[in-house]
Amino acid sequence: MDSIRVPSLQVPLSHQVDIAGFHSEATRLLAQLVPPETVQWSAAPAQTVGKEAVDATRALIHNRAARAIIPQSFIRMSELVVLHRDPQRFDLLYRSLWRLVYEPELRHHLEDHDLARLRQMAQAVRRDIQKMKSKLAFRPLQLKGEAVPVAWYEPTHYVAETVGAWLARRDPAMRWILLTPDRSMRWDGGTLLCAPAVVPPRDPCAARSDAEWGRVLEAMPWV
Q1: Residue 71: inside a domain, yes or no?
Q2: Strand pairing class (146-152; 176-179)
Q3: CB under 8 Å to 91, separation ≥6 — which residues?
Q4: What is the pLDDT of residue 1?
Q5: pLDDT tens-digit map of 70-97
Q6: Residue 111 and residue 196 share a domain
Q7: Each residue of 124-180: pLDDT tens digit?
Q8: Nearest-5° Cα angle at 194, 188 to 198
Q9: Which long-range contacts link 180-186 to residues 24+ away (Cβ below 8 Å)?
């Protein structure tokens, strides 16, 4: 007798680093007893223009019953793992969460492959955040007659918004534009704006004249 194939449940998230969306969907699926092998997660690149929170906030599980059974250590680790560029990160997170809930002794098995992989991914993201903080270099470019510090950086993982918020907190008086292959960011001294990425040459500031690059900046949706 042929086995019955269980159709995949498609779970789209709003963007690549949608930690709140993942926690909301994951707790809903857990409550409905939806096993991880039937779930297919997806997250498209963010295409919207909007404000990004500057104050550091921690991931929260709003469902009271879920808070009682989901380890806090997993919630904290998921904040970092969601920033990893591995396209299977949401599948790994939900599978690990399912196992932690239904196999409580698992949290004591440090050699478990899934949990070890999550720890490796979290550490890689931490390293990438620190590297980006130390390597960012701004140069003044003209934008509507004003010299604005602009930096281009290509992070390994989806850490641009995390680092952008850190920059805004570190020096609120400095205005800047940060460009990455994932998101464009602008800090005006009071609001951190994010927009879809610009796709320039590998070293845009060197490859274009200041005037040419200024025209690219002026065409951006949040200018």
Answers
A1: yes
A2: parallel
A3: 36, 39, 40, 41
A4: 43
A5: 778 888 899 999 999 999 999 999 999 9
A6: no
A7: 999 999 999 999 999 888 877 788 899 989 999 999 999 999 999 999 999 999 989
A8: 110
A9: 180/152, 180/153, 180/154, 180/155, 181/154, 182/16, 182/45, 182/155, 182/158, 183/46, 184/220, 184/222, 185/52, 185/160, 185/161, 186/220, 186/222, 186/223
Residue 2 lies in a domain: no
Q: Do the beta carbons of residue 177 and residue 136 sit within 8 Å? A: no
Of 131, 158, 175, which marks where a domain is finished?
Answer: 131
- As a whole-number percent, the residues of the chain with pLDDT over 70 amount to 84
In our burial notation (b when 16+ CB lie closer than 10 A, e otherwise), range 43-72 reads: beebeeeeebebeeeebebeeeebeeebee
Domain of residue 169: give its range.
Answer: 135-218
pTM: 0.85
| pLDDT of amino acid 41 | 96
